[in-house]
Amino acid sequence: MAQILDPLPPEQSGKILCCYINATSKIQVARISNIANWYFERVVFPGQRLVFEAPRKAQLEIHTGMMASAILSDTIPCDRLMLDDPSNYELDTDSSFGKEPIDTTVMVQQLNTKTGDSIKPLQIAGLAAVD
Fold first, then answer.
1. Which is nearest to 44 in space by CA: 17, 25, 16?
2. pLDDT tens column, 84-110
3. Are 63 and 75 in contact (CB under 8 A)?
4. What's the first-to-final CA gap in the chain, in angstroms?
């Protein structure tokens, strides 16, 4: 996901795709301040997932707080927030996906369907069941 408003400086190589989830019940501010010539700051609401690109050496600062104050509560190296390479999950158009025969072997054993005397009317404490 490209950062349209805050593109990475051209001299930065080795960008990675990262994901941070606010697992708290408070609003947080996520900020990267250790990369020269780049400004990155986002508000992350409770339960929200933030996906962003950053240089591998970036560190995400998490500021948690109330209305008019915030405390630096965590600093996370972005390489620990890195998502797997999405190209690993792209569909291969030359593969034989969907062309393999479906295994139709029976996976459930046959149930005993003999009803005989196994079905009896329900009796509740002195009351007879109505047929």
1. 25
2. 765 544 444 444 444 455 555 555 545
3. no
4. 66
Ramachandran angles phi, psi of 106, nearest 5°: -70, 130
Residue type, 33: S
Tell me the pLDDT tens digit for each residue of 4-61: 556 676 666 678 999 999 999 999 999 998 998 888 999 999 999 999 999 999 999 9
Q: What is the total residue count of the chain?
A: 131
Q: What is the 3-state secondary structure (H, E, C) of the chain?
A: CCCCCCCCCCCCCCEEEEEEECCCCCCEEEEECCCCCCCEEEEECCCCEEEEEEECCCEEEEEECCCCCCEEEEEEEHHHCECCCHHHHCCCCCCCCCCCCCCCCCCCCCCCCCCCCCCCCCCECCECCCC
Asked if 82 and 70 count as a contact pair (C-beta separation under 8 A), the reply is: no
